[in-house]
Specification:
heterodimer; A: alpha+beta; Butyryl-Coa Dehydrogenase, subunit A, domain 1; Butyryl-CoA Dehydrogenase, subunit A, domain 2; Butyryl-CoA Dehydrogenase, subunit A, domain 3; 7-stranded mixed beta sheet; two-stranded antiparallel ribbon; 55% helix; 14% strand; B: alpha+beta; 4-stranded mixed beta sheet; 4-stranded antiparallel beta sheet; globular; binds flavin-adenine dinucleotide
């Protein structure tokens, strides 16, 4: 058995970690949280130089042609730093969507731009108040034109193109054109900017087969769930260590608060959830790599465990900090906000639990 | 067993309803107007006006003795008033700390002249009070505070130090403050309580921005703040006893957060939300969550009724109300998070999604509520030690002079 990442992959992880520790300390997250920037441009540029967006793109399309495992270790580090960059939107969702469903011409056009960081993509599914379901999608595509409104779109105002779910399929649309308007919307996480994007006869093309949108989206979400799980694991671990560090320093009643079992057990529970999530994420990565038949089930398990671990660690990190943890000035809020945004973005845990059991049933039948 | 009012209680309820009908607007189902009220920049002014009206009618603190503007009434009547008032659109919240904690502490320790001067304006909403207890190095362990009060001649004291997380200090007129007057004795023995005007020279209030984005709590700095000895509450060195009076009242006052969204609103959201297999309210996972939170909500309400029954019979309530914040605070946080999940990706949006802002406020506010007024962990310690009689933690610092702590 060899259920672990290779030395090269660990080296890559270390390299990204060092880069982010250096270039993306929490004060950079705070700068984006408090300011108007769409994302931390210098961090993104550095990641592009490191080849991050090119990682999973085949060499034939200007990428590095590395395996999903490399992208997984990178995702973990992005999550650890809570890096305010369009990684989830562009490197995971948009890139994977094109790899999954793009025609040869579309791959040739978009993948090299993505690899070089010249294009930033995003995925636009939600249309506001109701959770996205086939009957709630009003955006239409016909005769090469797209009409509708998507909100919230992660990194929507920074993205140069979007993969959009229309009634009749997934489409790809250049956002720098007359028929597109973007408006930033306020969300619970100002470190991760979102927009409302309106398409008014914007020219677009189908991605994949007409009528296949939901099916493609489901497959895209399975892959994304694994990368997100790594990012959530990284975030959960960062929140856990932030709490442990504080529990060692902070004194109450003449002792470090970490010496109280109420705090110890809470942090031990963080660790338990974290390791369950990590192991499930590893299996997801393994299935993603070999085109494993068990991917749908593994992805759902990784997603559920990682969402739970990140939710718990991020809220108990605040609790461990007491009053100071509830201030704007404290770094505890970054993970609390990010955990919730990530939990909601590919469909929440409830939807994934339902999927998991359905997939388990299907597996037991076959 | 029943929930019926006694004839006296029923008569009082009727009286209260008539008075409220004449003086306030009944809440309709119109949540928008409620929200608009909460964003009103004149909220404080309106709250003061409402408090004045209520006090003039004798409803503000009915359990207080008549001489202080109360009615010497049983707590159950006060609760009936609050139950009825909660059906009306009235601005509340600014006076809870003052009337619930500070003034009762004053009543226990202040001179008759001071009570004559301070109680009435507080009751009528003319003056607001805050609680200056927590410090950067002492929250749960509030007896570990460092703010010094030193003798300033015979007749006065000079205070130096810093308080933090003081809710409402920025609009408060007065505060009660716990200080260290003798660092040479173990920490609980060297404390003394005072009250002071927030306008005393040397008091500086700096708002702290909360995680929620608002700034309702503050840092308060004391630089050579001179106050007369007559503002001392209790004996020198007996500040801990006085603080316990305040904290006991805090425990009674910190009840259920009112006005927030609860199970009814979650039901409404579940009815209006479309999932794969129809409305969310038909989904088993959603139903199971709603059921759990209903049991908690109802359990808290009924627990309170048990307490009220004891009060109504003139008995001392049991320790059951110690569960309230342990249940209510995490419920607020988790229910907020779940409601956002139900809304789908749009649950993160601050505007445009009906109810999103309300549930987001619960999700963020719940994180603070789990800490304020005794953390989840401290409250569990209290239940375990004082209710269940389990042995307390080893207290390494209890008998060591304060100025020797941390030195070996
Ligand atoms: C919204 C808000 C409003 C507030 N308003 C006021 C106010 O008006 N006036 C005022 O004086 N204070 C106020 N406070 C302060 C509040 O009382 C303290 O924050 C609280 O008591 C915790 O203290 P701390 O912040 O120092 O945390 P700490 O005491 O440092 O606690 C840190 C962590 O250690 C845990 N811990 C500490 N001791 C133990 C133990 N023995 N066993 C197990 N775990 C332990 C705590 O539960 C917590 O998780 C407010 C706080 C908030 C969040």
């Amino acid at each position: 058995m060899n259920f672990d990442f290779s030395d090269d992959q660990k080296l890559l992880k270390e390299q990204v970690r060092k880069f982010l520790a250096d270039k993306c300390p929490t004060k950079v997250v705070r700068r984006v949280l408090d300011g108007p920037e769409a994302y931390a441009d210098e961090v993104w540029k550095g990641l592009v130089e490191l080849g991050v967006p090119a990682t999973g793109i085949p060499e034939a399309y200007g990428g590095l042609g590395l395996s999903p495992l490399e992208l997984c270790v990178i995702a973990e580090e992005i999550g650890r730093a809570a890096a305010p960059v369009p990684f989830d939107s562009s490197v995971v969702l948009a890139t994977e969507a094109i790899k999954l469903a793009g025609s040869e011409a579309q791959k040739k056009k978009w993948l090299p731009l993505l690899a070089e960081g010249k294009a930033v993509g995003t995925l636009a599914v939600s249309e506001g108040a109701q959770p996205p379901r086939p009957r709630n999608i009003a955006t239409t595509f016909g005769g090469g034109f797209l009409n509708g409104k998507k909100v919230p779109v992660a990194d929507g105002d920074a993205a140069t193109f979007a993969i959009v779910l229309a009634k009749n399929g997934l489409v790809i649309v250049d956002l720098a054109q007359k028929g597109v308007t973007k408006k930033r919307v306020e969300t619970i996480d100002p470190a991760r900017k979102h927009a409302e994007v309106t398409f008014d006869g914007a020219s677009a093309e189908l991605l994949g087969t007409e009528g296949d949108g939901w099916n493609l989206l489901e497959r895209l979400y399975d892959a994304a769930a694994v990368y997100f799980a790594f990012s959530q694991v990284g975030g959960a671990e960062a929140a856990m260590w932030m709490a442990c560090d504080y529990a060692l320093q902070r004194q109450a009643f003449g002792r470090a608060i970490g010496s109280y079992q109420a705090i110890k057990h809470k942090l031990a529970d963080c660790y338990v959830k974290l390791e369950l999530a990590r192991s499930n994420a590893y299996y997801g990565a393994m299935m993603l790599t070999d085109g494993g038949a068990d991917l749908p089930l593994a992805a759902a398990a990784a997603r559920i465990a990682a969402t739970d671990a990140y939710d718990f660690a991020s809220k108990e990190n605040i609790q461990t900090h007491g009053g100071i943890g509830f201030t704007w000035e404290a770094d505890t809020q970054f993970h609390y906000r990010r955990a919730r945004v990530m939990a909601l973005s590919l469909g929440g845990p409830m939807a994934w639990k339902d999927k998991l059991v359905t997939r388990l049933e299907q597996k037991n039948v076959t | 067993m029943d929930f019926n009012d006694t004839p006296e209680e029923a008569a009082f309820r009727k009286e209260v309803r008539a008075w409220l009908d004449a003086n306030a607007t009944r809440k309709s189902d119109d949540k928008a107007s409620f929200r608009a009220r909460n964003d009103d920049p004149n909220l404080l002014k309106k709250a003061k006006e409402w408090q004045a009206k209520k006090a003039a009618a004798g409803y503000a603190r009915m359990t207080w003795p008549k001489e202080f503007g109360g009615r010497g009434a049983s707590p159950i009547l006060q609760v009936i008033y609050q139950q009825e008032e909660s059906n009306y659109l009235v601005p509340l919240g600014f006076f809870d700390i003052g009337l619930g904690m500070c003034i009762p502490t004053m009543m226990a320790y202040a001179s008759p002249e001071h009570l004559k001067r301070y109680v009435k304006p507080a009751l009528h909403g003319e003056e607001i009070w805050c609680q200056l207890f927590s410090e950067p190095a002492a929250g749960s362990d509030v007896a570990g505070i460092r703010t010094r009060a030193e003798r300033d001649g015979d007749a006065g004291w000079v205070i130096n130090g810093q308080k933090v997380w003081t809710s409402g200090a920025h609009y408060s007129d007065y505060g009660i403050i716990i200080t260290r007057t003798d660092p040479n004795v173990p920490k609980h023995q060297g404390l003394t309580m005072f009250f002071l005007s927030m306008k005393t020279p040397g008091v500086e209030v700096r708002p702290i921005k909360q995680m929620s984005g608002g700034a309702n709590f503050n840092e308060v700095f004391f630089t050579n703040v001179r106050i007369p000895d007559s503002q001392r509450l209790g004996k020198v060195g007996e500040g801990w006893k006085a603080a316990l009076t305040t904290l006991m009242n805090e425990r009674l006052a910190v009840g259920l957060p009112s006005g927030g969204l609860d199970v009814d609103e979650l039901m409404e959201l579940a009815r209006d939300t479309d999932l794969d297999d129809g409305p969310a309210i038909r989904n088993q996972q959603v139903r199971s969550k709603i059921a759990d939170w209903y049991v908690q909500q109802q359990g808290l309400k009924l627990t309170r009724y048990r307490t009220l029954t004891a009060l109504s019979k003139g008995q001392t309530p049991g320790p059951e109300s110690s569960i309230i914040k342990i249940v209510a605070a995490p419920k607020m946080q988790d229910m907020g998070a779940f409601a956002m999940e139900l809304m789908g990706p749009a649950g993160i949006m601050k505007e445009d999604v009906p109810q999103a802002a309300g549930f987001q406020a619960q999700w963020i506010g719940g994180a603070g509520f789990r800490i304020a007024g005794g953390t989840d962990e401290i409250l569990r310690n209290i239940v375990a030690e004082r209710v269940l009689g389990l042995p307390p933690d080893v207290r390494v610092d209890k008998d060591v002079p304060f100025n020797q702590l941390g030195k070996k």
